[in-house]
Structure to design on (384 residues):
């Protein structure tokens, strides 16, 4: 007589449920929190800007589609017991391919390596499935192999963990690319605070991310106060879409904010001059002009332009006051003189701190610890 073994059935169900829950949670979290902006860039590029990726809808649809793929694989292979997790490998492979988005996907794509790598992985997986099925008759069933804390369940969880690690390692992990993609998607929503929040504590940046942050700060009227609180890359020209790259955000978003799109490529200062000459400049242009000079470390041009836009007094934005102090201390006969007790005292402390550390590397580290975010640190220590 044949008897139905409830432990065997319950153990199999437990293993399947645990694997399914792990996959669904991992896939949704991975797509919603870690890859949403990267996938938004990929979809924008591949659709020619016709469609827009929604992080919630996208995460749900992709996760459910991959889960249906797993169900189909299980229906064919009937893998259970110790190797049930292997039925998730094709779904994990697709998830890995979706996550492997080139940083410059709009210029070229290197996904071609998947044309040979994916079939190779599937071929090896097919061999593992064949071997697992051959081992079924030797896989004993007893109480130690059933239940949530069983050896069988944990063997499947180990396989799931290895596949999750594979997806994480294959996915694009370029921090600046993620920051930039997130900032662009936030800009599309008009969320300037989110543009400034992303990557706030990171020291990694590029010229395009600097341009996006400058745009967000200018929208808030804080460009002259906070630009150098973030790591700055590029030159003054890179404040414009002509010289810095955008992948999702239309360049006209920034051109309209400044006043007009240039008819042909030109330097930032030439562009600002044309806007002002043709009375097209918006109020934001004045800070773009001054900050572009500061990024270029062109203090003479900055000082010459400053009185056109601001009265030289204690109400100046923070970075402009800091730049004036540097200018005065580095010129024999400064054209503009400026003095403020607080800034002057800070400057003395800054110079005093420098004098305490004769070794250049140690001096830079100490100055960074105390004056990170100031124009002084950018002017003297940030790499051009």
């Amino acid at each position: 007589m044949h008897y139905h073994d409830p432990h065997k059935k319950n153990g199999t169900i437990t293993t399947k449920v645990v694997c399914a829950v792990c996959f669904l949670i991992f896939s949704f979290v991975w797509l919603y929190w870690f890859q949403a902006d990267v996938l938004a860039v990929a979809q924008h590029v591949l659709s020619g800007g016709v469609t827009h990726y929604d992080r919630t809808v996208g995460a749900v649809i992709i996760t459910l589609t991959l889960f249906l793929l797993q169900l189909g694989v299980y229906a064919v292979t009937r893998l259970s017991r110790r190797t049930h997790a292997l039925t998730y490998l094709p779904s994990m492979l697709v998830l890995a391919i979706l996550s492997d988005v080139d940083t410059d996907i709009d210029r070229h794509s290197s996904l071609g390596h998947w044309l040979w790598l994916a079939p190779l992985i599937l071929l090896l997986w097919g061999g593992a499935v064949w071997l697992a099925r051959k081992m079924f008759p030797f896989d004993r069933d007893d109480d130690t192999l059933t239940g949530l804390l069983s050896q069988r369940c944990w063997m499947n969880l180990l396989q799931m963990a290895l596949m999750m690690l594979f997806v994480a390692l294959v996915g694009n992990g370029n921090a600046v690319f993620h920051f930039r993609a997130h900032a662009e998607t936030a800009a599309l929503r008009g969320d300037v605070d989110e543009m400034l929040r992303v990557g706030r504590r990171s020291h990694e940046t590029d010229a395009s991310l600097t341009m996006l942050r400058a745009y967000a700060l200018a929208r808030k009227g804080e460009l002259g106060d906070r630009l150098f609180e973030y790591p700055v890359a590029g030159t003054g020209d890179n404040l414009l879409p002509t010289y810095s790259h955008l992948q999702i955000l239309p360049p006209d978003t920034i051109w309209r904010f400044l006043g007009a799109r240039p008819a042909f490529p030109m330097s930032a200062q030439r562009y600002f001059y044309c806007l002002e000459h043709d009375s097209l400049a918006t109020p934001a242009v004045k800070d773009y002009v001054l900050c572009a000079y500061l990024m270029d470390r062109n203090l003479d041009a900055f000082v010459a332009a400053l009185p056109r836009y601001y009265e030289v007094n204690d109400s100046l934005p923070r970075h402009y006051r800091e730049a004036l102090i540097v200018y005065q201390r580095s010129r024999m006969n400064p054209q503009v003189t400026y003095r403020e007790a607080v800034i002057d005292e800070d400057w003395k402390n800054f110079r005093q701190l420098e004098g305490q550390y004769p070794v250049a590397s140690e001096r830079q580290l100490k100055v960074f610890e105390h004056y990170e975010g100031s124009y002084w640190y950018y002017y003297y220590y940030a790499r051009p």
